[in-house]
Amino acid sequence: MYKLKIIIASTRPGRKGPSIADWVYKTVIARPEFDTELIDLVAVNLPFLDEPHHPRLKKYEKQHTKDWSARIDAADAFIIVTPEYNFGFNAPLKNAFDFLFHEWHYKPVGFVSYGGISGGIRSVQMLKQVVTALKMMPLMEAVNIPFFSKHLNTEGIFIPDDVLHKSLETMLHELVKWSEALQTIRIKHKQIAY
Fold first, then answer.
1. How far is CA 170 from CA 72, 123, 148, 176, in A?
2. CATH, residue 31
3. Are 95 and 46 in contact (CB under 8 A)?
4. Alpha helices (runs of H) in the chain, residue ranges in sequence order
5. How big is the CA angle at 130 (ends 128 and 134), to the nearest 5 degrees?
6. One digit per residue, pLDDT tens: the chain, 194 residues?
7. Closest Cα to residue 93, out of 76, 68, 118?
8. Which of 30, 39, 130, 132 has the most CB atoms lying inside 10 A of its own CB?
């Protein structure tokens, strides 16, 4: 069983990310391959990067960084649920990545993006540059949700259509494959490095 972390990127008041992430989470926990945790960056509440040492050194001084390091280090794979802001992704998500370095290495990441006509794909394109610099494997398979508000009912619950369900299932299938492959690389890397 692989430890999967689903990260809700949006932190602004009135955000819709939690509703979309709830759908993703409920779909994933029905699968036997993953032990899943939903991480909300609002609850994590990281300040703007405040560590005096470069993250590659892992000389963390702040408790919030040590806690964040432990959560991310324990993961085998990630799904990022992200909006698109001004053709990119939001600052709290970049900040969450920048706090750490080694903890992200050799782990696959899938994306569930949402927005207007583009479905958030421009934010994902920018994110791929960041995650590859952290030695992560961004999946080609993704869930892009254009005009996402049409999928929200009057209670704010996200109601996906068949296309979105199929996209998520396809991405999860790939995430299992990459989790297995990259777990092997991480084990070999630790044996060589330590």
1. 24, 20, 19, 10
2. 3.40.50.360
3. yes
4. 17-28, 41-44, 63-73, 91-98, 121-133, 162-193
5. 110
6. 999 999 999 999 999 999 999 999 999 999 999 999 999 999 999 999 999 999 999 999 999 999 999 999 999 999 999 999 999 999 999 999 999 999 999 999 999 999 999 999 999 999 999 999 999 999 999 999 999 999 999 999 999 999 999 999 999 999 999 999 999 998 877 766 54
7. 68
8. 39
For residue 102, give every residue at least 6 positions away whose Cβ sits within 8 Å of its Cβ, in sequence order, or none: 55, 56, 58, 73
Domain total of the chain = 1
Q: Which residue has the tokens 């432990």?
A: 70
CA dihedral 117, 162, 89, 181 (to 10 degrees): -140
77 phi and psi, to 5 degrees?
-160, 165
Rounded to whole angstroms, the Cα distance separating 77 from 172 reads: 10
- Identify the pLDDT of residue 189: 73
For residue 52, give the amino acid letter. Answer: P
* Distance in angstroms (rounded) separating the CA atoms of residues 90 and 84: 7
- pTM of the prediction? 0.95
Range of the domain at 186: 2-193
Per-residue CA distances from 18 to 105, 150, 185 (Å): 26, 16, 32
